[in-house]
Structure formats: C-alpha cells, structure tokens
Amino acid sequence: MSEYFPVGRVVDLAPQVNSRSYRLGDMELIVSEILPGAEIPMHSHPELQAGMCLRGSFTFGIEGQGERLLTELQTGYGVTSGVGHWARNEGTEVAIGLDLKRAADAQGPTGSGFLDLVPGRPSKQGMTVSFIVGDWFELMVADLTVGGSMVRHKHRHEQFGVSISGSYSMQIGAEERVFGASDVYYTPPAIEHSAFNDGPEGGLAVVGFVPPRYHRPAVLDAPAATRSGS
C-alpha cells in the first residue's frame, strides 16, 4: 500500500451522493459526485471544514452566512467547528465537490464564509496557478502544461492533490508514479516532492496546503452560533 497515493473508501453522506473518503495524515479528504436533485441536509461537526466545486455547480449553505452557488473551480468555503452547513444540486448535471476536514486545534482563529478564486501568474516552469486561501487552509488550482515541471522541494506544510484532468509524473520521497484519472496524493511535512508533465496534454489538479503557505489568509466572518449535530 502506498504511503503517498492513498486509496479511498466509499462513505454514505446522503442519497444520490457518491463519496470517497481519503485519510491524509490528520486530515480527511472527501470527493463526492452529487447527482441532480441530491440534497445533503444541514449538519455540523467538531472538525473544521473547507472545500470547493471541482465540476459542474451546486448550492452550498452556511449557517449565518446564507447560500451561494459554487461554480467549477471558482468558489470555495470555510466552515468552523459546530457551524451548520448543507448542500444541494438543483441543476441537471452531476456535480463534483471536494471537502477537507481537520480537527479544530491551536492553529489560530477560524471563521465561516465563502471565498473566491484569486488568479495567479504562470511560472517559468510551465505551471499556471490560482488560489483560494482561508485562515487554516490553501486550495490551489494548478495547470501543469506539457513540458512543465514542479521542481523538487519540501516545506513544513501538509500537502495533497486531487487530479481533475490529464496526468503527469509525480515523485514523493522515493516513490514515483503517474498522477491522473481522479487520483489523490498526500505529502507529509518535510518530504521532498516534484512533478513533470511529459504527456500529450496539460494536467489539471487542485492542490491543498495546511496551514496556508506564504499567501495572506483571508479573514472570514466571526463564527456563527454553534449547533449540535453530526
């Protein structure tokens, strides 16, 4: 079994929602297919949660913040411990959502709210990136062009990636494999990793960092009143 390329397990969130859960260190990553007409009722839990829409669109609601249509790779959210949240797909196409959960700890103040994608600049190595940055997480939409690379490096942050389309070679520690076709990877802190796209098309992925890297975290609204639930 790979330490860095985990295999997800099927979890039941709600009817007409097909989800896979990945355990990434102290975090849980959930990737869900949300069928048309599906609804995840309002609930809350002790963990912090962040996420975004990977494909299509769906409505997401946060207690005290209202609702917003999350569109493909454009809008994200952060929800603090104990705050109710819900989702539903009112469209005619299957939507795919990403949710990241982490235990509330001493990482600093957290709030709940919606976050828009901030465009970045293409790198000299052939990677175009955009960011959604909360107070405890950073989600990066990364497009690695043909011939592009992410040089071998390491950092203090936990990192994960979810493939959206295309593929590229990924090396984590001493392990190397092709990353694509809805794969997930996880890089613990201080583990060297790199990527190179030697394929016929660009590789698109969402890459997450906990805590955020050098980007200034967004200041979300103060936590709403807590609600019991699961």
Could you give the order of strands across the largest sheet? 1-2-3-10-5-8-11
Helical proportion?
Answer: under 10%
The total beta strand count reads 21
- Give the CATH topology of the largest domain: Jelly Rolls
Return the structural class: mainly beta
Radius of gyration: 17 Å
Q: End-to-end distance, in Å? A: 31 Å
Overview of this structure, please?
The structure is a single chain. The protein starts with 8 loop residues before the first strand and ends in a 20-residue tail after the last strand. The protein has strands spanning 9-14, 17-24, 27-34, 39-43, 48-55, 57-62, 66-71, 75-79, 85-88, 95-102, 113-116, 118-119, 127-133, 138-144, 149-153, 158-165, 167-172, 175-180, 184-187, 193-196, 203-210. The chain folds into 2 domains: 9-116, Jelly Rolls, CATH 2.60.120; 118-210, Sandwich (Jelly Rolls). The strands form 4 sheets. A 7-stranded antiparallel β-sheet has the order 1-2-3-10-5-8-11, with no helix packed on it. The protein has a 6-stranded antiparallel β-sheet with strand order 12-13-14-21-16-19, with no helix packed on it. It is mainly β and 230 residues long. The chain is 0% helix and 54% strand. A hairpin with a 7-residue loop joins strand 12 (118-119) and strand 13.
